[in-house]
Structures are given as C-alpha cells and as structure tokens.
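Mods, move this if it's the wrong board.
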Amino acid sequence: MVRDSVVPDVTQFVSYAVNYADGKQILEVTVRRGTDRPYALKSKGINPNGVFVRQGSSSVRASMDTIRMMITETAHRHFEREPSPIQSLTFSYIAPLFEERALAFGEAQHQTLKLRNSQGDWTGLALLLSDQCTHTTKIALFQGTGVAVFRDRREFSGSLLSQLEKSIEYLHQHNRIRSEFPGMVRMDRYDYPVLAIREMLLNAYTHRLYSVSSPTLIHLFDDRVESITVGGLAPGLTMEDVLLGVSVSRNEYLVRVLHQLGIIEAYGTGILRMFEQYAAYECKPIIEVSPNAFKLTLPNRNYLVERVGEMEGVYEAYLFIKKHELATRADLQHYLGCSQTQAGLVIRALVEKGIVRTVGKGKNIRYRAM
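Not the wrong board. Structure tokens:
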C-alpha cells in the first residue's frame, strides 16, 4: 500500500512489526524521516492537495511555501549527515582498524566522527562504514579489450573499507609483472602501478554520489582497468580543475575518517599521484565525465609494449582508433602530428600484431580496433 500510494518511494524508511494484545494482532508501522522530502500521495502529486504535515496531533495540507522549503532542503541534503535508513548497525570491520592504530572508537568518537547526529541516530556515514552498508562493488574481468566475454566477476559488500581492501586484493591478483633485462639487473614492471590502482579505488569510493543506489563498477580488460561511479564532477568543478589537482570532496566526513585511519595520506592529491605513476610512459590515465557519472581508466603499461615495442605514438593511435571505431591513415597522421611514413609504420605494427584490423580496400581502407 505504501509503495503504491506514496511518491517518491518511501518503503526503505518504513518498517513493520506484528504485536499481540488481548488476543488480537496489532500491526505496528514505524516511519523514519525520509531523505527525498516532500513525499506526496501519488494520486494528487506534489502540491497542497497531496502533501501533508503534522501540526500537533493533526495532519494538515502543506502550504506551497512549506513544499518549496522542503524541496530546497532536499536539493542541498548531504547523504553523510542524513539519518541512516537502517539503525541496527554494527562495525565489526572498522572497529579493529581503530584499535590497531590506538584510536578510540566509543560513543564520543561516534559523535565527533559524525557517525551519529544530534538526535543520536546513526547517519549515512555510519551506514557506509558499517557491516550493513547497502552499496556494493562489482568487478568484472573480461577477455580481450571488449565486454563480449566474461572471465570472472565478483561482488563485494559490507563496510566500504572492507570493499576497498577486497577490491585492491582482487586487482593485485590480476596485475601481472613483466620482467626486462636492460642491463645486468632484472627490472620488473607491473601492468598497473600499485599506487595508481589504490588511488583509483580511493577516488571511486570517496567522490561518488551515495544518495543514488548504484554499485561502484570496476572493469578489468587486457589493455586497461576502469572505475565507473555515479555523480559526475562535484558541483563547481571543471575537468581543468581536476587535472590541476583541485579537489572538492563530495563526502568530506568519509575522507576525514580515512585520513584519521591513515588510509588517505593527503587531501586532494589522488588524481595527480596517479598521473605521476605514468609520467615515464607514453600511455596516460584517462578521465571521462558526464552529468551523472565519472569514469577513470588506467592503461596497462605492458599491453602494447609486449606486442609492438616502444614505438612512439602507438598507444595514442590505438586509443584513437578504438574511440572512433573506424579511422584512416590520414586521421592518425593529423591526430599524432607525425609524418605520413611514421603514421604508416604505427598502423602496420598494430595490424601485424592483431591489435587493429583493416576494413575495405584501396582508397577506402579504414582501421578498426580488435
């Protein structure tokens, strides 16, 4: 009845229990304060006929001014500070982390860390750190460079810090080492810098929008690993700001907890640290944003080296062809700013190693990523 009658969906804030008195069943319905106010009768809509508020012991129609105020409050709500829809929370994962670092984690700290609000309710931040966290991480391991064939998939739940640890462990298991002998001493190079993997995951967890119920997605391909989260850029930020190292934390209290635990060493340096890990390589991390999503891609440093060597422009050419689906030699020459001969050598190397294939013949020849 609640689901069918009220908008937005309020069922996550409603709980039920059956009690008995004088041989009769009594249905007890508990409704907690929701996070998407105002709530309205679906048949009436968000207007004074459909929105009601309590005045003393009575329910009265809300005025338009009251409705506008609730809409404004909702637009500026902060998930971390909102009451958690689940109040029976436990912290079996993070409590030992505080103990290991000789940090107290009692009632006083619950207040100062913003795990409880002024009314004593557990907050959204507490939910994220608790064993009952409703947000999950989904990791998919694909064969090749596309999504056609799954090799493995995992889903991690529980405290965000537990999900972080399990995700790091899983990606490390699939982070191969390539050995080289440039001289007398062997040099080992991971597909992905270990620090970059860690910073990518920290960025995914600390900057995503938790008021939207959607998992954090990690996709692992032969040539790259991607993290995809909801929320886009924080309000007021541009892509140029991000690349300059400007950081606006969407979940500031979560960041504070991670900093206190020593998981985050410095505020707002994650993106820059990732790029620093690729400074000596032709391939670079890629950031893509939309109004509702943020995607970060770390390239496999060994993928093309193992196939075509260290030829200049190979990785950029590969990404260009993959992005545009079909490209000509002239397209690549213009994009890379190189000579016709160099563009031809790059394409030949990609084709000979089976990374790119030709489409068409003669003047109509195009190139497509495999």
